[in-house]
Design goal:
This protein is mainly alpha-helical. Helix content is 48%, strand content 5%. A 3-stranded antiparallel beta sheet has the order 2-1-3.
Length: 144
């Protein structure tokens, strides 16, 4: 089986034209089933870092260990962001009333730079097809 690169329809290898769009097979780059599955796996794994619950809702984390690993990393990253948000809010609320301490509050925003960096690291790991844990938070497992 192969897929039409123009429209994505699955065709038999013997067909001269795409069954859906009618494009000649010679004019179409043929994509194998394994290449299509690899592409879908990478897509779901990248989504795990951007919108972590998409692979969970789609059930993709049950189909592939690679997707499950990166979905776990994305979920842990989201939970860590929520926890850091709560801690920074509490510290800000307390420090604002201590004379002179309000000067350090803007430095709390630097902590937020870690999260986009972790997302980028995770996506690079997916692109390189490795299951490497994120720094600091990557050792935690939520999705088994």
């Amino acid at each position: 089986m192969s897929y039409c690169k123009k429209c994505g329809t699955q065709n038999t290898g013997e067909a001269n034209y795409c069954a859906s769009c009618g494009t000649k097979q010679m004019e179409v780059e043929v994509i194998s089933d394994t290449d299509m599955q690899k592409h879908e796996t990478k897509t779901m794994s990248i989504l795990a870092y951007i919108i972590f619950f998409i692979p969970l809702i789609a059930g993709a984390h049950k189909k592939s260990e690679f997707i499950r690993f990166h979905t776990n990393q994305g979920t842990v990253l989201c939970i860590a962001a929520i926890i850091v948000g709560v801690i920074v809010s509490i510290l800000t609320a307390v420090l604002i009333f201590i004379p002179g301490m309000w000067l350090i509050i803007p430095f709390f925003s630097l902590v937020w730079l870690l999260f986009p960096a972790f997302v980028i690291i995770g996506i690079i790991n997916v692109a390189n097809e490795v299951m490497k844990p994120l720094p600091i938070i990557g050792r935690f497992t939520i999705i088994k």
